[in-house]
Amino acid sequence: MIITRRAFNAALSLTGLAALTGFSPLRLITSAMAQSATDVAKPVSLPDMAIGPKDAAVTITEFASMTCPHCAAFNADVFPKIKSTYIDTGKIRYIFREFPLDIKAAAGSMLARCIAKDDAAKYFAVVDVLFKQQMDWAYGKTSTTEGLGRIGKQAGLSQEQVDACLKDQALLDKIAADQKYAAEVLKVNSTPTFFINGDVIKGEASFDTFDAKIKSLLKS
User: Fold this and answer.
1) To which CATH superfamily is domain 35-219 assigned?
2) How confident is the model at residue 154 (pLDDT cuts 50, 70, 90)?
3) How far is the first Cα of the chain from the last one, in angstroms, to the nearest whole number?
4) What is the pTM of this model?
5) Has residue 33 got a pLDDT over 60?
6) Are strands 199-202 and 193-196 parallel, antiparallel or unpaired?
7) Hey, what long-range contacts does 132-141 have (CB within 8 A, 24 or more apart)?
8) What angle is formed at CA 4 by the lines to CA 129 and CA 148, rounded to 5 degrees?
9) What's the CA gap between 42 and 25, in Å, rounded?
10) What are residue 62's DSSP bridge partners?
11) For residues 97 and 40, is the Cβ–Cβ distance under 8 A?
């Protein structure tokens, strides 16, 4: 399916959109188990967006949906502390993976990819904007396409480039393929979900939770 303005304006829930976009409703998984660090580290269709040294002893991989309020809260309250304490100091590597829970989240992820291209730092900056303005573009009175259009133009894209991005079926297919891998292989079934060297943390955990886990791994 091509993502269009009409599709966005008509899309009010994940139910019904799933079949149209190739996104399957998430299976209920009863337990969060540690996964092979190799499985977690494997990029599937899209290149990883990561900051921090490649040879870091600790890697955090976050799976998030751009329309997830808990993800936005984590981005505002916890991630800056992790970044200043561990990423900016070169102690850990941080990978952000898209796990869209609805078509609006997929569109947000597509826009972030189009704006940033291969620039990971720019990608994280766009994600930060998307989360900070989430209530406007995802849940506001204006349409999602209008909201994302504003963000795209603020980042230097023309309206034509924004439209082309949101109609990029190949990009949408790659995001869907990566989501499927995360759900089926890594057993991700909610956002945010984090893997710290393969160990799972689900939900909007506190900085203290991450701090304790990171310190224990850095010591080992």
Assistant:
1) Glutaredoxin (3.40.30.10)
2) very high
3) 48
4) 0.84
5) no
6) antiparallel
7) 132/72, 132/75, 132/76, 134/66, 134/67, 134/69, 134/72, 137/104, 137/108, 138/66, 138/67, 138/104, 138/105, 138/108, 139/67
8) 15
9) 23
10) 96, 194
11) no
